[in-house]
Amino acid sequence: MAYLLVTAVIFVLLFAVIVREMVQQSKRRKEFRQSLYDDFGTMPKRKYTVENVLHLQGYYTRHPEEGQLDDITWNDLNMDEVFRRLNYTHSATGEEYLYYLLRSPSENREQLEHMEQVMQWFREHPDDRVDLQMYLSELGYTGKHSLYDYIENLDALGERSNKKHHLMNALYFPLIALIPFRLSLAIAGISVLGIYQIVTYFKDKREMEPYIISFAYIMRLIMTGEKISVMQIPACEKEFTGMWECIQKMKGIRRGSFWVFTASDSRTSGNPLEVILDYLRMMFHLDLIIFNRMVKQLRLHVADADRLISLAGFLEAAVSVCWFRASLQEGFCLPEYGNAAQAGVSIKDGYHVLLEHPVKNSIDATKGVLLTGSNASGKSTFLKMVAINTILAQTIHTCAAASYRAPFFRLYSSMSLRDDLAGGESYYIVEIKSLKRILDAVKEEQQVLCFVDEVLRGTNTVERIAASTQILKSLSGSQVICFAATHDIELTELLRQEYDNYHFEEEIKDGDLSFEYRLLKGKATTRNAIRLLELIGYSSEITETAFADAEYFMKNGTWQA
Q: What is the tally of structural domains in the chain?
């Protein structure tokens, strides 16, 4: 009687703990759902570590396309920071697809217009947006590795056999049958067998753990896809149909997947039921057996898994852009796409999305633009503003501007270069290679938009001006528009036929320096570099002599000895 009472108490306590955990999970889910309504339009809250950004390029590197942004351009424009500004996703699938999207400017109007239809629907139907986000948040993340890292390495696992696992599990039956006759011997045998199973479980599990985690993710992807594909959203009909087709083909992978689906979470969830299930896995190798069968199935459906990832990723990326648009306090516009015969860039009140208090500028460029002005006056920021808005126009159908009109471009930059110490190349070598890749793109008769900051800064003045003139002339014409910033005022005259001149300027008043960051027509006329030396305390001997030398050169064209 006492034994039954103790057993009953244990079960009641266990039941109470499970119920409590279920209530807590339900509460957390409700709070998260409410936050998707309340936080819409706020700045991103995701915190990034070195580990959780390592997987970001997974989808992008497996889906190379013509016209994607190369590493030089991506890094020049600080696009990692732009990505983080746009990232409102809650899964590795959405995060990796959004990264790929930003690196893959499109020249397909229908594709961009379809994305706009999807985003408009989610903007106008917040309940559908939140439902979709709730489903996609169940996918979670894959750690520092991309799901594709595991899928591509399936062949390294070889053919997995379950014969050993089935044989060891079969030994439980005679030991259980022995219980009525030799209880102590049966319990001892079951204990020894269980310990052996647990020890060998961890040995096998260690080899397959990363893959089990990835398969659990694929199971969540299939289950999430089932929930999403029955939603009634006309704008997403193409995605929903595609997801359902993939799910039907991958049904065989799901059989028995419960044991794998929760295995990766059982030791961290704190749920007592999950702990019990985990011990069952260890004693009977249930998840390992299912895993071996799933490996065989997945090898037959890699293309379907990839398509399912693409469709789910697209939907979450579209929702993320909706959040981004709502967070733009300075407003946004939908881009207009001209044709190649109208190869001009027109931006009204454009601004840089990473600036908290941006100064807006407008430009209407039908040929090259040459920017002059002092350091810190706004030249580089303006170049990045135009470049980033062009990228956003051709990737997420959104521009940080009052209006944007341009044809589709292949985009390149040569701006924030450094010495390649590992490759043993000087800054000048790195720079001329960077410029050469743009010239090669122009020769391929592509419609190119390029951005160059301080052409050939890595060499002497005379050769720099001579070579810069010819390079920038080569980056002009019907197939290319180049935005270039320079301190070499001589280029404004040498390139006056090919480039329109614009400048930024600073103001020195009452011994203080200020910048308006406003784009002005014409070339820079102020020469305040020496005045800046004076302002921060350089001796008058240095500054006054420098002033005199500069004036002499401007009058005579030579330097006085």
A: 4
